[in-house]
Amino acid sequence: MQNLKVIAQGARYRGGNPMWSWLLHRVTGVGMVLFVVAHIAASFLTQRFGSGAGMAINAVYESPAFQLVMYFCVIYHALNGVRVIILDARPSLMRFQHEALWLQWLTFAPIYALAVLLIVLRAMSGE
Amino acid sequence: MRSTHPRRPRITLDMAMWVFTRVSGAAIVVIALVGFFGAMLMGARTQMDLPTLLRWTFFPNPNHVVNSNIPDVAVGWSGLFWQTLQILIVVFGATHGINGLRAVLEDHFRGPRIQPAIRAVLFVFWLAVMAIAIAVVLAD
Question: Per residue in B98-121, pLDDT tens?
């Protein structure tokens, strides 16, 4: 019962944009670690044993859908990390943390849009 | 009268890694940009798809992209400069990523026995990833 109360309070916690970027930073970070581990394992299995398992993992992360997710993780995590580094180094700038978040998304949007465009174009050309 | 000087705080693993995460994060961004623009100058604009570009950006090793269409791939990307960048990004990236995994895991699994177990597993994993990656870099 006590636990349920804590969970309910947590769900109502209104951290706003900074809270969501903290969560997204974690999710994208863990996503990249899992991808790199899968990538190393697949290369190792394929090169050493010619294993079908390696090729199966390769097929997953070479798919356009996976590329869309991976590019999101890399670009988001890098830009959000730069924002965190700048605000930690100059705490006086924390006054502008909401502006910083909007600036971050304004930077993210065109870069990610270009990546999405190139991935979708290539997927449609059927290469 | 007792001294009013506060005792110097002991530097914990979490404090050291807090600093390291920021320094290595900035370093990875810089190294990745060098790899990205290097790839662009060597022909990525016309000859690379995005997955290949991602490989070159973060791990510019001739063995890493066997299907690349760049004709002089081994010429452009071998050499001490790119090998140094590869080793730096491997050490920074593996440490940054596995320490991040540690932070997330330790937030979710607390307890006197589970924390040393998480650290032991991740420590072995960290050494293994760096050993494999550096062996690949130095292979040619």
Answer: 999 999 999 988 888 899 999 999
